[in-house]
Design goal:
It contains two helices and twelve strands, in the order ααββββββββββββ. It is an alpha+beta fold. The protein starts with 8 loop residues before the first helix and ends in a 12-residue tail after the last strand.
């Protein structure tokens, strides 16, 4: 090492010696610590742990220790500790006789009348069963209602045949039986004797009879002021006054003509009225061969 101008060379040489010495001492101390730790038993711990970590410890001063020992009996620390006397158990009373079982209380009896007022029960015979009603056969009358004929409806033809004398309420036509011209308020339809005659619509029979003009006839009220009369029939008619007839129902058969229709041969006399006024049957009769 070169000498620095202004400083002595001996001074640096002394400092370097001490630095080297201290370094060696530090290395030795570290090696000693490592050897100590390596040779320590496995369960040995450096720090002491309190058996009760939750217990707080406070440093006690010398004045406190002296004061406690001055007022306490030092021999008391070496005497055995006496236990507090236990109270003597109270003897339980001797068991008495068992309680008597409770007797059941009988139910209250209703008050009985005096002996002189008691009456013997009377036994009444059971009522006789009512016999079921005997079914009686009653007469069921025929229906009293029907579907009335209305404007725009059509009636069935009573028979199928040719017209031997048309309806003519205002113009004069020739009548071969009377051999004269006159008005005619009915329609005459040719048919064989015994041919069935049918009602034109639903209605109620209001008249059954015979006269010189119409022969045997049946008059039917079809409702709403419409009335039809079927004449020149056989004597054995199939309906009676008050009967309800349906459309197309046979009411009788074609018979021999009366004295006022003999020239027309066997035929059906058909007269239709509305509110007592004769109308042309062609207006309400349906097409031919249709009921």
């Amino acid at each position: 090492m070169k000498n620095i101008p202004g400083l002595g060379g001996n001074t640096f040489r002394k400092k370097g010696f001490f630095i080297a010495l201290y370094s060696c001492l530090g290395v030795v101390a570290v090696l000693a610590l490592v050897v100590t730790i390596a040779n320590r038993p496995p369960n040995q711990e450096f720090a002491y742990e309190s058996p009760n970590p939750q217990e707080e410890t406070h440093p006690v001063g010398a004045d406190q220790v002296e004061t406690y020992l001055a007022g306490a009996d030092e021999e008391a620390w070496f005497r055995p500790r006496q236990q507090a006397p236990q109270p003597e158990p109270t003897p339980s009373p001797p068991p008495g006789p068992p309680p008597e079982p409770r007797q059941p209380v009988p139910p209250a009896q209703p008050p009985q009348p005096p002996p002189e007022q008691q009456t013997e029960p009377t036994t009444e015979p059971p009522p006789e069963p009512t016999p079921p009603p005997t079914p009686t056969t009653e007469y069921v009358p025929a229906p009293t209602t029907f579907t009335p004929f209305s404007e725009g409806d059509y009636m069935a033809w009573p028979v199928y045949g040719e017209t031997v004398m048309p309806f003519s309420a205002h113009a004069l036509i020739y009548d071969p039986t009377l051999d004269q011209f006159r008005t005619n308020d009915n329609l005459r339809i040719a048919a064989e004797e015994g041919a069935p005659v049918r009602a034109g619509a639903y209605g109620r029979v209001i008249a059954v009879g015979r006269n010189m003009r119409q022969g045997n006839y049946v008059t039917i009220d079809h409702g709403n002021g419409w009335v039809a009369t079927y004449g020149q029939l056989m004597e054995n008619l199939l309906v009676s006054e008050g009967d309800i007839v349906s459309s197309g129902q046979v009411i009788g058969g074609v018979g021999q003509p009366s004295i006022f229709g003999s020239a027309n041969g066997t035929h059906v006399h058909l007269r239709i009225e509305r509110d007592d006024v004769p109308i042309n049957p062609y207006y309400v009769l349906a097409a031919r061969n249709t009921y």
